[in-house]
User: Fold these one by one.
Assistant:
Number 1:
Amino acid sequence: GGRGGKELRQVLGLPDPTAKPVANATPLVRTLTRFAFAMADGYQVYDIVMAEAGIRRLCCWTHGKRGFGLFEDDDPAAKTIADAIRVLYRIEHEADRAISSARAAGEAAIALRHQFRRDHAGPQLIEIRRLLDEAQPRYTVGSEMRKAIDYILDRWAAFTAYIERGDLPIDNNAAERTIRPIVIGRKSWMLIGSED
């Protein structure tokens, strides 16, 4: 499955379809139990491998919004779409406040967020889809704005899957914040201990 596919299959404990069979080899034991959902960017190999593993794909709304943020100062449609996506985040913050006010925790908090998403994010997602469908034909294939629109439309099921449950993230910002020091530090640490 291309760059990253082999590594992802290893993490998920899936066999490598390109590997040559070894006589009398012990079958690979799954390194991880089955995931129900996983969030990844738009790299197509992830779709293939996650489908093999029976994993539902989630897409990050921060990444989805990024393409419109680049043009929102100059393009009214980009601003309208970016603002509509921002409403999803306001809904998440309102859900956080409702959970806090109710002093809900555990399953009760998950259920409350799920209900909040169905009642508020569901209709907002319908509006975002309408805006994307309406804007798409106005931009030429290959233009940056069209790429931003198509990025979301081509992965619509993965972008909207988070509302199916209250324990799924709307984005992967927490994970990216966690690994950021490692990614930024890589170049800085490269020469530590070197005499050069």
Number 2:
Amino acid sequence: VSFVAGAASAANSSIATTSNGAVADGVATNTVQVTVRDASNNILASTAVTVTLTGTGGAVVGTIAGTTDASGQISIDLTDTTAENLTVDYTVNAVAGAGDTAVSFVAGAASAANSSIATTSNGAVADGVATNTVQVTVRDASNNILASTAVTVTLTGTGGAVVGTIAGTTDASGQISIDLTDTTAENLTVDYTVNA
């Protein structure tokens, strides 16, 4: 005699994150895996199921139809272009599943092309003590800010300002500020590089 698994039970099925921490570039993937079981907790191997995932952010999620493997599992790859933490829910055959899982997308390497510089204080007296301040905002290739990230900023001026290479860590807004002094009354243009 043979006893077979019953219909999929969303209450007894589960979801887990199997790969995490992908760069938010729209290409790299995090993976979640749904294990499908019936009301008696039997796995549903080689069974057609529909899994629907919804996230709290901008991840590419939706409805995916597929077939479970021998362990009653189906894996779904997620991409994102925003560095963020997501909570992923699921349904099995239109019934909400029990629990959820978290995935995180992180910013990529610093992109000098997407980073920017601005003067935040200006008009200091040229006495070698008073300072003007420039602020560099560091972003990756997808325009995500790089918070709490070690960066090297190099500033060069057209005059005699005290400039050079400054290593530091960006704040929560992906910014680092640099104070400049001068002993010559003049107008300066300040350039910068991020990680050379």
Number 3:
Amino acid sequence: NNCCEDEADKERELLKDKRLISPPLSPKDVLPERLIRSFHDYLFYCAVKDFRGLKQEKTMMIHSSRYNEEQETIYDKIRFYKETLQNDISTLKKSSEYWLDISNGWRDYSKKSNEIRNKLNLNLSWPEWSDEDLIKVIIDILAAIQFKLVNGPNDSVDYSREQLDYVVAVGGDILSRGLTLEGLGISYYMRNSNNY
């Protein structure tokens, strides 16, 4: 999910705001829609890998700014969003205010994936889940996700020492300078493209 310079600046300002999601604030009041979509795509990426029986790490990277305080704020917000999503969908199922976004996102993700598979003539299995099946899959993945804040020289994501099957790594320059993220499926960059 790429964005233009103006959009990146707006996202940065929104993410620097330390408010978490709580009534009357919705996720879209405190998180950029592009980050929410990227997180949902990460859930779908994990779901498909699990469906195919691939016992590999599944990682999302959120690369923000070089400032630790901003990274910590984003880390807190995305963790809080995950918990809110998990609790709401677990409790309310299809009545959840978030379910429509997840359901529509899954349809879009499936459509785009199907187009790619057809274009490349790939014969890969694809799940045909009912809403109830998708809810269960998403709830299980949300329950398993671990978050790692990687913003210091001694920080790492050590897959060999920890059971890290589903990881969201949040940080800045360290993430883009030689740190290996196993099974990286989704990358979200919030910095302006002229910073690269």
Number 4:
Amino acid sequence: ACADDVGLCLYAVAFVRFLREPFAAARALANLSLHPTKAVMVPCAQWSQELADELRRRLSLLAPEWTGWQIAPWARYLGFHFGPGAGTLAWHAPLQRFRDRATEAVASGMPSPLAVTTWNTLLISLTNYWAQLCLPPPLDESEEARWMNKMLHMPGNAISVALLARLEDIGVRSMRSVRCWSLAALVRTALDTLPE
């Protein structure tokens, strides 16, 4: 739970009955209640409309007050898209923001040293939040190389991502790879934040 957002993972829909009492207590004691139109049940199974209809039927038997819940192949929780149907949806908004900011940075014509700092701090950080729980973004190496080279006022395919990440070998500040940095954030989260 975070603020007034609650996310739950249940082994089976039958366990919904155990949620009624705590949520009734929250409503009575703190005036906090679930809004069925905002609640989403995401089955961790192959999605079909028949499955959704069956879950809705069972929910109406187990907790009639929650029959208005949405049943969908994915849901958004604290900015993340969860569920079997989420795919790469989580990356749509952050990658668009990344591309927009990269376009602005390239258009500014800033000198290369400032461009490297901007890339490594302002642009890379746009993906870090989502990278904690999502596989690396669907940003292929050629697109990443194109943006990195444009930041340095060079043709899009002049230097590979691997070489741009090793510029320190020749005494120049390196540019971090978005994909590698995202994978590192995911590993850090797995090892440090969610070790068990």
